[in-house]
Amino acid sequence: MSGDAATARACANIALVKYWGKRDAARNLPAAGSLSLTLDALTTVTTVRFDPALPADRMRLGGEVAAPEVLARTRAFLDRVRALAGITTPASVESHNHFPTASGLASSASGFAALALAASRAAGLDLDDAALSRLAREGSGSAARSIHGGFVRMDAGVRDDGLDAYAHPVAAPALAARVRMIVAEVGGGAPKTHGSRDAMEHCARTSPLYDGWLAVVPRDLAAAEAAIAAGDLEALGELTEGSALAMHAAAIASRPTVLYWQPATLAALAQVRALRAAGRAAWATMDAGPHVKVLSDERDADAVARAMAGTEGVTAVTIARAGGPAELLPRTAP
Ligand code: PMV
User: How far apart are CA 311 and CA 304, in angstroms?
Assistant: First the structure.
């Protein structure tokens, strides 16, 4: 592939132990670690081409000219790549989210992971996984995890320069093969959600529960890694649901509140508890939106998906498996 253009694909990921809060906003360094599962069903494919003939950076997202705020965030990210590569060339970016529906499922993780890989390669850089993960993190904290497939641990690190704040794969091939994530989309009249970046900063500043939230993360991380090592999905599931509820409790207690849930979110949570009471593998997690994602396994995934689809207010359901790492794609015709 030539040095000036590259195409990369990355999968989204869902945190099992959540990232919520920064120790350094400028460098986008997390206040605590996190642990996620990369998902095969939600991907972003991005092509970056550095072209001296362009007057300025430009971007298309899903075939449309990107909104000004999306272009601004992408340009800031490209500036970091250009600084690393020692170039000043403008770039064109073409990005497509291959998500099951157009609903508000977060795409920043797959988006910045694909952009990090495509842009760095197009700029002539050949970054290792640690450097790629650090670069993706500068775009979005969760994107650092989408560089890897399967289970992934993000380290908060302690260094001011962030060199130790990047993600590592957590090898568990047998568990990764049987785990499933059922994504239940909650739609219908959703109020505009708070972007995670501003919301976590506001939560850290105003929530009386933020310190309690941060204190619980290291314990949950250690327990989740132990559960993965033991192939214990039930223990991992309980930690997953607990981490999401603790994160949302801290967010909800912010003043004014950061409340992502809708009535259908609570109905979906009740459905998950009912499934569990009926002996199904089902544990819920939620991010910066009203959707509910259910950790399950290959045996119960279909039954869980059917039950979620039948829950009032759930508008679409997708069964995802563990996805692979971010990767370069063969170059498409110009
Ligand atoms: O990557 P960001 O800045 O969009 O933050 C992600 C925050 C959560 O999705 C709520 C949690 C997580 O760990 O992914």
Answer: 11
User: Which top CATH class is 6-173?
Assistant: alpha beta
Q: What is the pTM of this model?
A: 0.96
- Ligand 1 residue neighbourhood (C-beta within 6 Å): 15, 18-20, 34, 108-109, 140-142, 196-197, 287-288
Taking a C-beta distance cutoff of 8 angstroms, is the pair 55, 89 a contact? no
Ligand 1 centroid distance, CA of 37 (Å):
13
Answer for the pair 184, 268: CB distance below 8 angstroms, yes or no.
yes
Cα of 23 from ligand 1 centre, angstroms? 14
Which residues, 6 or more positions from 310, have their beta carbon under 8 angstroms from its beta carbon?
none
Tracing tokens 């991010």 back to the chain, one arrives at: 287
- Compute the distance from residue 239 Cα to the ligand 1 centre, in Å: 17
**φ/ψ (deg, to 5) at 118:** -65, -45
Test site for ligand 1: of 19, 151, 155, most ligand atoms within 8 A of the Cβ: 19
- Measured CA to CA in angstroms, residue 277 lies from 213, 242, 273 at distances of 27, 17, 6
Q: Per residue in 271-301, pLDDT tens?
A: 999 999 999 999 999 999 999 999 999 999 9
Annotated domain spans of the chain: 6-173, 178-320
Question: What's the CATH number for 178-320?
Answer: 3.30.70.890
292 CA → ligand 1 middle, Å: 14
First to last CA, the chain: 13
pLDDT tens per residue across span 157-179: 999 999 999 999 999 999 999 99
